[in-house]
Specification:
The chain is an alpha/beta fold. Helix content is 61%, strand content 7%. It has 24 helices and nine strands. The strands form three sheets. It has a five-stranded mixed β-sheet. A two-stranded antiparallel ribbon has the order 1-2. The protein has a two-stranded antiparallel ribbon with strand order 5-6. Helix 5 packs antiparallel against helix 8, helix 6 packs antiparallel against helix 7 and helix 10 packs parallel to helix 22. The longest helix is centred in the middle third of the chain and has 30 residues. The termini are far apart.
């Protein structure tokens, strides 16, 4: 095999991988979106495609060959390509035949569990005792917006019901299998193996950062809960009441300023003003909740952006949300998803490297770095100056500053607690993998998770979002993954601090898109997470900036908001055309809703009309 020239063999590796990746990701989309009438067949095909791809990536002979190619490479391009394949295979190769067999068994078990979870009859009992089917997304929304406590409690109980269901459908056996794999491959456990493989960091290194954040937010998180207990009464501060008591009324007040119908237009105009472009990518967006659809937003790229010998290959990227037209908060959720998943898409669309191994979203691509892109861009929606310019009601009036202040009064005291809610998922998942196999029972698992929730969130009955209701823990790709969001949040605050210090503002800052494309996006996974953060901000990753932000009092946060709005007069408003350099299609399952054909305004209007029809139908029902 290695007698061929390095360039020819690298071309063959690139072509083989690109084809396998696209087949697997197209099967992933079909299964996750519920596009086939036979759900079981869709998951069976996904399982087969996943195993096919993993066999390619886990083959020790390919790693040996890649190292030989790297040693024989001549010229910068050959050396970069070969190094990329060495890093990719090192992140995936499993030398042991026994471990490779176990990995395939794990993939099959994950597919069975995910199919079972998708078939779960999830919902709640209404005031008449009738069962109402509801996705986990809708249930979480009810915790924030339903005025009746009985309905909020029913929604929370429904979320809690996910935990015994997945425990009864093989999750603990999956944990045991994953741990056996991690230990076979020399790690402490599965979680440790996953962080080493994806982030090139041990579990201990990852949790050293998380421990720093936990310590820095402990006092503010406890204070928020104590003050809420004093304000509302200890009996009312329960997991099903907390979000509504601290933010329910203001969520309803904010709703008119985040109209669902305007979400696509706002996303396009705001990203255009930031100079974010998609390098000729094809974007496919599926934004509205429906039965059979995966209950969490995500982005994936069936076609990887890269420079092939025949020219640049533009990406094909899909992303999804689970917004519910007519439901309070749905417009804000839709906008957040467009900014978040649209940030992921901008990252992967702008990768400009000479092999597809640099442009895919799996190891050795850093989870934390991927999430930094999306979370940095969706953080804009919480900024007072962005809200003044883009959060407009149906008559085009901006959000009053009095409402900005009320929102900060409601949300800022719990900012540190919300950070700890993310930490709870990480510490809970880590704890599950640290339970000895012979002690890993459903009762022990649930006791462990409740202990983590009580310790991190200071609520006797646990978290508003039960840890095992978080879908990431079930899936192979996203298991032992959630810490990436927390590390990314640290990087986001550090990045926001950098741009504000240098440029004075984030909203409509045209330097942001081009700078991210150059420093962060173009290199793909050829640079480590820590090096990327140093490259842009000039500093090592730290919890300092995040802790400072979430620990601000409401009064301090309002002072910062006033200053940002005062500076807005000096920030030019974007009045140019929305040119994102992308072909965009909005779908709903198999239906095409709107398609961009040069005129972004007409594209956004088509989306608006469709959302109006869905909202009217929801109200009639």
């Amino acid at each position: 095999m290695t007698t061929a020239s390095p360039t020819r063999r690298l071309d063959e590796l690139d072509a083989a991988y690109a084809a396998l990746h696209t087949r697997k990701e197209d099967a992933f989309w079909s299964a996750k979106m519920g596009l086939r009438d036979d759900s079981a067949a869709a998951h069976t095909e996904l399982e087969a495609r996943e195993i096919e791809l993993q066999r390619f990536l886990q083959d020790p002979e390919r790693l040996d060959e890649a190292r030989t190619l790297a040693a024989r490479a001549e010229g910068d391009t050959e050396r970069v390509r070969a190094a990329g394949w060495v890093a990719t295979f090192e992140a995936h190769v499993i030398d042991s035949p026994r471990a490779r067999e176990l990995a395939e068994q794990i993939t099959a078990a994950e597919s069975r569990l995910e199919h079972a979870r998708g078939e779960m009859e999830l919902g709640y009992r209404d005031s008449n005792g009738a069962f109402v089917r509801a996705s986990s997304v809708k249930l979480s929304g009810l915790l924030r917006s339903a005025p009746e406590e009985a309905l909020r409690r029913a929604a929370w109980n429904a979320l809690r019901s996910i935990e015994p269901y997945v425990l009864d459908h093989g999750f603990l056996e999956l944990v045991r299998m994953r741990n056996r794999l991690g230990r076979l491959l020399g790690a402490e456990d599965y979680y440790d193996w996953k962080t080493r493989r994806v982030e090139n960091l041990s579990k201990r290194q990852v949790f050293a950062w998380l421990d720093e954040l936990e310590e820095r937010t402990r006092a503010a998180g406890q204070r928020a809960v104590d003050e809420a207990r004093a304000a509302h009464g200890a009996q009312r501060l329960t997991p099903w009441n907390l979000h509504y008591l601290v933010a329910g009324d203001v969520t309803r007040e904010l709703d008119p300023y985040f109209p669902f119908r305007a979400a696509l237009s706002v996303w396009g105009r705001s990203f255009a003003a930031l100079g974010v472009k998609y390098a000729g990518a094809e974007l496919v967006l599926d934004l509205v909740d429906r039965k059979g659809k995966y209950e969490n937003g995500f982005m994936h790229g069936p076609v990887v952006a890269w420079r092939s010998p025949r020219g640049r290959v533009p990406a094909r990227i899909h992303f999804t949300a689970n917004a519910i037209p007519g439901m309070v908060g749905s417009g804000q959720r839709a906008m957040q998803t467009l900014f978040h998943e649209g940030g992921h898409a901008a990252h992967f669309a702008n990768i400009d490297m000479p092999s597809p191994c640099f442009g895919q979203e799996f190891a050795p691509t850093s989870v934390a770095f991927c999430e930094t892109q999306s979370m940095f861009l969706d953080s804009l929606l919480d900024d007072a100056d962005w809200q003044q310019r883009y959060a407009l009601d149906e008559q085009g009036r901006p959000m009053p500053f009095e409402l900005v202040e009320r929102a900060l009064d409601a949300h800022q005291p719990f900012a540190a607690w919300n950070a700890r809610a993310m930490l709870a998922v990480c510490y809970g998942e880590k704890a599950l993998y640290e339970i000895p196999d012979d002690e890993l029972t459903p009762q022990r698992a649930l006791e462990t998770l409740r202990d983590v929730e009580r310790r991190l969130l200071f609520l006797d009955e646990g978290s508003p979002r039960p840890i095992l209701a978080v879908p990431h823990l079930l899936s192979g790709d996203s298991s032992a993954y959630y810490h990436g969001y927390v590390l990314a949040e640290m990087a986001v605050h550090q990045t926001r601090e950098f741009f504000r210090s240098r440029d004075g503002h984030l909203v409509d800052n045209p330097r942001i898109g081009p700078e991210l494309a150059r420093a962060w996006w173009a290199p793909g996974n050829s640079v480590s997470f820590g090096e990327f953060i140093r490259r842009l901000t000039g500093a090592e990753l730290s919890a300092r900036a995040m802790a400072h932000s979430v620990n601000l009092s409401a009064q301090e946060a309002k002072q910062e908001a006033r200053a940002a709005i005062a500076r807005l007069a000096s920030v030019p408003r974007w009045n140019g055309p929305v040119e994102l350099d992308a072909r965009i299609k909005v779908i709903h399952g198999r239906e095409t809703v709107a398609q961009l054909d040069g005129d972004f305004a007409a594209f956004a209007h088509a989306f608006e009309r469709w959302i109006d029809e869905l909202t009217a139908a929801e109200r009639r029902s």
